[in-house]
Amino acid sequence: MSYDNKVEYLLNMVKDETVPAIGCTEPVAVAFAAAYAKKYLNDEIDRMDILVSKNIYKNGKSVIIPNTIEWGLDLAAALGVIGGNPDDELMILRNVDLELIDKAHNMIDEGRITVNYLENSPDVYVEIILSNNKEKVELILNGKHNHIEKVVYNGEIVYENPLNEEIASSNSILKELSFKEIRRIAEEINIEDIRFIEDGIIMNKNAAEDGLAGGKGLKIGSALYKLQKEGKINADSSMRARILTAASADARMGGSDCPIMTSAGSGNQGLGVVLPIMVVAEDNEIHRDKLIRGVFFAHIINKYVKMYTGKLSAMCGCAIAAGIGSSSAITWILGGNDEQIAGAATNMLSNLTGMICDGAKENCALKLSSSAGEAVLSAFLALENVIVKPNIGIVGNNIEETIKNVGTLCKEGLIQANDVIVGIIQ
Question: Do residues 116 and 34 make contact, with C-beta atoms less than 8 angstroms apart?
Fold first, then answer.
């Protein structure tokens, strides 16, 4: 593939993988799928059956739904099917109000909704079956939180858009790239082509401010900010990154309707990619264009890691994917060379690999803030040439090999762990 084609591929990939969302993307995906299925049903719904992957089930069970103080995939689906506009995609729950919540509860209380998980399915997978005495609509969402793969109406396929071949081809291209090549492209791409990245920086900063002011979630961000003002904790870049990412996660996990910019299908990872880089850029008076390039770089690295680990897994993506992208980009915007950029990512993976994902919920703010703070520190250490040596533990000969090793750990070593986690939270 030529250099120009690589640039075009990465640009399109980032555009596709960074989309606005309100709320946790797992219950939002279920709400979107339900609303999309409803388009094909002419009469009232007698029954809605929902089947999801274990990871969707895990992440959708306990997280607060936007504009509510409640949780549950059944509630998310009911809200989507009753009042959601599928054209809103991952913003589908932005118009939820008390009247809609009451109607959704009536549907649930009447026993018209079932939710179960599948033993074997892709990471991101939702089946919605809507039925009445005359009609049956079967819908499959697969591969991405907003990708409808198939709709079947009364046994006849009325819509089909397979994604598996496209994903396999895209993964193959990205796997061929090295950190050095990705860095070069982020450095050289026409800045006007990636100006859209600024929307995500503004959006995620607003979410952090919403979290500091709104009293949502566990209020970890606002508590840390209070401790900082009282002089009980420092006001350095690492702590500021912790505070802002915690606050934004407080808002997002606590039911705020403030939109955030996702990264590789995850809202929390969007926050973890953007906010630490933004903090370091502000603290060091980095030019805005370089910040934009840095965030573009980080989005790609986040996707690169998840290509090996999976979109959802038993390991916290904020630590092993978003944190890697953020730390690499921080090192770059501060003038680090390729060895130091890879070293920052290696430091992160040597440190936080093993942080489990036990579902999306309010205390994700703790894990996200830890990942953000360590992303800054790992970059600072790498810039001092303090870098974990190769071929120790999961660390391979280079950063690309280390990421492959983490992917192997996620997909082969932690399969049983994910089953156990789902069993515990069930």
Answer: no
